[in-house]
Amino acid sequence: MSADPAKVLPMNARSKPKIVAKGVQKNFGSVVAMEDVTLSIQEREFIAIIGPSGCGKSTFLYLIAGFEKPSGGELTLNGKAIRGPGPDRGVVFQEFVLFPWLTVLRNITLGLDIQGVKREEAEERALKWIRLTGLSGFENAYPSTLSGGMKQRVAIARALTYEPEVLLLDEPFGALDVQTKNYMIKDLQNLWQEANRTIVMITHSVTEAVHMADRVVVLSSRPSRVIADVRIDVPHPRDRRNPSMHRYEDEITAILSAEVDKAMSLERQIGLL
Amino acid sequence: MSTIDLASAKPPSEARAIPLLPNIGARSGVIVALLVLWELAARLGWINAFLFPAPSNIAATIWTQSGPDGNPPYAMPMHVLRSMIRLLAGIALAVVIGTVLGVLIGMTRWARTLFQPLISIFMPVPTLAWTPVLLLLTGIDDRTTIIVVFIAAVFEVIYTIVAGIEMMNVKLFWVARSMGASRLQIFLRVIIPAIFPYLITGMRLGTGYAWRALIAAEMLAASSLGLGFMIYDASEYMSTNVIYAGIILIAVLGYLLENVLIGRLEASTTEKWGIQSER
User: Under an 8 A CB cutoff, do B196 and A101 touch?
Assistant: First the structure.
């Protein structure tokens, strides 16, 4: 029997790379924010990117979204270089960024509306995501009357309703209090399975990353590189008390703390000069 | 529990309306007391009733001049209507042109380079200084007064719109562009509503300036109608009753414009959305 590498790695054989970053570099003026980020994200994979604060995690997400342009290297989606934002990628920001003049329903249907989909059809398609994000009954509320958790549900439903191939989450629970955050992570567990798309999530919480993602990528402090890439082999829905989750958490926390220590001592040295 | 949540979710502007309420009675009390005192003083001869005619006489003048016995018949409503048409036409122009210019200045470098020095130069010029030039350009007709109103209001509109653009969250554009919105869609469906609170502020300030400028311009450049013309014309005939009638109407209409017209607009937009417009 010949050893077929495709059989050794069934995950990779089934899926093809959706987003590929090769030596991606990003400078802001003379500051090198990112040097040589190389990473391949598979179709329908949920990947969490984690790193010390200020390491350029969000910048990497904005590069994929097309809001920023890389200063060097190659960044492709479906094999084509990314040139600006587009409806094949939906974005959810930490600070929600809802349109305050639109009701919950109109925020969610805006993407389809802009693409010329008829109002009834848009509402029909929005309904599924309104239900899955737990927003039923709030369709006609204005964002200013909602709590942070509810606002983020609207932002998630808004991004999913126009059915992008890739969902980009920029610290989606970062602006919420701990209780709301934990509840949302548990409550939305099925949503990501149901959405069944390529998801890239930026986070600074190891627990969040391990709980939600299929794969956790750790970035170094600035200028950022990939320093670890861990597959989380625990089936969904995941239980917080599962001991193997704790092992993953410990492993990633160790890598991250070492990186933070390094960054901090470097910062102190610079401060002393 | 749920009532507490609802109350805390209300926009702060509504919370501020509550301490104002008891003031309304006190305020109208002050005005009524003043009118009564004035009436008495005029009747009892404490003040010159020609220079300060009794409020009841002024009211009677407004009443007769509003009816078929006026000179000309229905004079008062016609003066008011003409002033209002000029004011609203000028403000509408200022809102449209001011918004477009404000967005261009706020968002493009070329417009900023081109218009900002011009605005800095012309903004401090009193609007009335333009009237002689406009009279020469257009003659004595509504165009002069409408353009005066436009000039009086447009700088405030531009100024607040530029401020609104500068305060806008760039991520609102990003979300719209991720949805595949075109430039026109972004302008109409993101920029315009996002700057609406600022537009209302600009309109509020602009309308105040425009209303004053209009009355003055009508004194210089109106041939037959308008509240400013009415006051100016009455001074030629020493009809102090009509002059005071004009002043009172200007005050009342100015109050209604600010509180009813713009107040309604605000209630149906920014207050409903739960965003504060700058005052």
Answer: yes
- Count interface pairs A-B at CB distance under 8 A: 68
| Residues forming a β-bridge with A166 | A89, A198
The answer as to whether A263 is a domain residue is yes
* β-strand partners of A217: A49, A229
What residue numbers bound the domain in which A67 lies?
A: 5-74+200-272
Distance in angstroms (rounded) separating the CA atoms of residues A59 and A223: 12
* ipTM greater than 0.90: no
Domains contained in chain A, number:
1
Q: How far is A204 from chain B (nearest CA, A)?
A: 21
Q: Which residues of B touch A87 (CB under 8 A)?
A: 178-180
Strand, helix or coil for residue A32 = strand
Mean pLDDT of chain A: 88
Task: Identify the pLDDT of residue A7.
Answer: 42
A112 occurs within a structural domain: no
Tokens of A133: 């994000």
CATH topology of domain B53-273: MetI-like fold (1.10.3720)
| Among B residues 240-269, those touching chain A with beta carbons less than 8 Å apart | 269
Q: Which tens digit of pLDDT belongs to each residue from B231-265? A: 999 999 889 999 999 999 999 999 898 888 888 88
- CB of B196 within 8 Å of a chain A CB? The answer is yes
The pLDDT confidence band at residue A14, using thresholds 50, 70 and 90, is low
**What percent of chain B has pLDDT above 90?**
59
Whole-angstrom distance, CA of residue A108 vs CA of residue A159? 8
Q: Do B171 and A99 touch (CB under 8 A)?
A: no
Could you tell me the CATH number of the domain that includes residue A13? 3.40.50.300
Which chain A residue has the Cα nearest residue B175? A91
